[in-house]
Amino acid sequence: MWPIDESAGAEPANWKGWPEGKDFALVLTHDVESDRGVEHCLELADLEQKHGMQSAFYFVGDRYEFPPVLLDQLIERGAEIGVHGLVHDGKLFKTRSIFEQRASQINNLLRTWNAVGFRAPSMIRDLQWIGELEIEYDCSTFDTDPFEPQPEAAGTIFPYFVTSESNENRYVELPYTLSQDLTLMVLLQEGTIDTWKKKLTWIAERGGMALIITHPDYMAFNGNACSYDQYPVELYEELLLHIKEAYRDAYWPALPRDVASYWKSTQGGAG
Predict the structure, then answer these.
(1) Over 60: is that where the pLDDT of 271 sits?
(2) Which pLDDT score is estimated for 223?
(3) Which domains are assigned to the chain?
(4) If you average pLDDT over every residue of the chain, what do you get?
(5) Rounded CA gap, 220 and 47, in Å?
(6) pLDDT at residue number 269
(7) If you count Cβ atoms within 10 Å of the first and of the last residue's Cβ in the chain, which end, N or C, has fewer?
(8) Buried b (16+ CB within 10 A) or exposed e, 150-169
(9) How far apart are the first and last CA of the chain?
């Protein structure tokens, strides 16, 4: 069931299709997990801009420092900013007291950064508690990924609604559907984009959402030699070129907030 779970390709009830009749949605996202990642954010955004693409960057609130101007510079390049937890230690949902303390600070970050999206560190999540954050969408799940520490899958390549029982907040959940670069390039040492290409073909055929998580932390830029936990950024660029060439005019390039807004406007009456 990895990288493809056939059952995850089923269309949602009352599905209206993507804007302008596009075959599938393309959503590029990045988690920034260290100082090294911070250093490469603008390079990554410039690379995407060169190919006419935009993405979302999710920052950890209290793990590293970065100049506030960085967020403005990314936004100037068309990027979206989101919150990737507070300290990235996997303990956000360990107890209610921990969550409530950190949730207050996460909500402050959401307001300060004018962000509407959240992703849980290490994809360790409680979707009910996440609904207590001041968000329009969350992206802490996946259609299928047995390599994650909390491997229970969403089982769909489409967005879906989640309602928090505590406050009845209804938000959009955006599962990632293309494997993380950390899994493919660092842990499995694949060295090619074949798995991405195979899964993308399957998603496009079923009209789903191709949402990927990559990390500037694990990319080697400017031809620099890769350390044990890096891969050449050229592999990611190869994926962007493949998408442009193989699926020209067939996909809807969207930021996560745009997908969430579209889902609410077209599927708002659905379950």
Answers:
(1) no
(2) 86
(3) 33-267 (3.20.20.370)
(4) 96
(5) 13
(6) 67
(7) C
(8) beebbbbbbbbebebeeeeb
(9) 25
